[in-house]
Design goal:
Layout: H1 10-24, H2 27-31, H3 37-57, E1 68-73, E2 76-82, E3 91-96, E4 99-114, E5 117-132, E6 135-137, E7 143-147, E8 150-161
Antiparallel strand pairs: 1-2, 2-8, 3-4, 4-5, 6-8, 7-8
Pfam families: HSP20
Family: Belongs to the small heat shock protein (HSP20) family.
Keywords: Stress response
């Protein structure tokens, strides 16, 4: 006699895997006898939630956001960007029309050595900014300097600062 296959709903598999996970991590409850049972539950849930957020953040780690200031100083438009850990060879600055593009790209090595444990990881860190300039600038006299992880770009103005236009809502 052939037995029919049993179709189990997805919630059954979730309950089964949760049950095995609780058995595997039960020591969290056992170690915390002096606390309420909810403290153990909170500890039991915290670790997987942290792991989940770490996994969700990982794909976006390669894109770094740098602090960028744009201001006028005398007759110059000054752009100051925080790029810690970057070398000048890893940074590209391009000026097109009234937009300055800033790109920085480097490989980040991460090493951890503990007792008999060794791990090395590489990740690419990428910064990209597009900055609309507030005035016409002299491209031939533009200058950039990287010092202590801060990039300073000076662009001499050739024309007046552009002002925005207010648009009324009907």
């Amino acid at each position: 006699m052939k037995y029919p296959s049993i179709h189990r709903p997805p919630c059954f598999w979730l309950a089964a895997s949760l049950s095995s996970w609780v058995k595997e991590h039960w020591e969290v409850f056992a170690m915390r006898k002096e606390l309420s049972p909810f403290d153990g539950l909170e500890l039991l849930i915290r670790k997987p939630v942290k792991s989940l957020f770490r996994l969700l953040d990982e794909p976006f780690e390669e894109f770094a956001k740098s602090a960028v200031d744009v201001y006028e100083e005398g007759n110059d438009v000054v752009i100051k960007a925080d790029l810690p850990g970057f070398k000048k060879e890893e940074i590209r600055i391009q000026l097109e029309d009234n937009t300055l593009s800033l790109e920085a790209k480097r490989e980040k090595d991460e090493e951890v050595s503990e007792r008999n444990y060794y791990r090395k990881e590489r990740r690419e860190v990428y910064v990209r900014e597009a900055i609309t300039l507030p005035a016409e600038v002299d491209r031939d006299k533009a200058a950039a300097k990287l010092e202590n992880g801060v990039l300073i770009i000076r662009l001499p103005k050739t024309g007046p600062t552009r002002s925005g236009t207010t648009i009324n809502i009907e």
